[in-house]
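Posting for a labmate who doesn't have an account.
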Amino acid sequence: MRIAIFTLMRLGPSLVYATALIFVLSMPLLESYPASASAWWLHMTILPVMREPIYLLLAVPGVGIWSATVLLMLASIFGIRAALQPQRHQRSAFIHAHIALIATGLTMGRAAVAQAGLSDFAMPQFQRGDWSFLPLSYSPLGTFLFISVFLACICCHFRIIKRIISA
């Protein structure tokens, strides 16, 4: 039972990458079917959760929607493999989980700022002299993803500490 719970906890980063993959795929879906209410619902549900990390990924030169799709799919598949074989992929799983944690943490802080374009993306509000704390966004999906990835990071840290103590 304990092994199954830890395996589920380690699947958190894969869930984040899969959610980002669905968001990336919702973009061409909206392009093909702009009048579809379900396509808009899918895109707008995931938008506050994955907007910032995906825009950062798509801002990398040479990364388009389809290459981002492949990257996110590979990251999600690797996370499943790392969750099922944690002793084999300790360092990689650590990096994998912490990248997902940074991405979801970035989203939780920035989703509270309403923006329609990318003009605020280059120069965020808090870098222009407004040092007040932005309220965290309340998205049930975002909160669930952040907690699941945070638990995966804790599992990685416990595994590393356990390995250090036993050595």
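Reply:
Got it, the structure tokens are right above this. The chain has one domain: 1-115+136-166.
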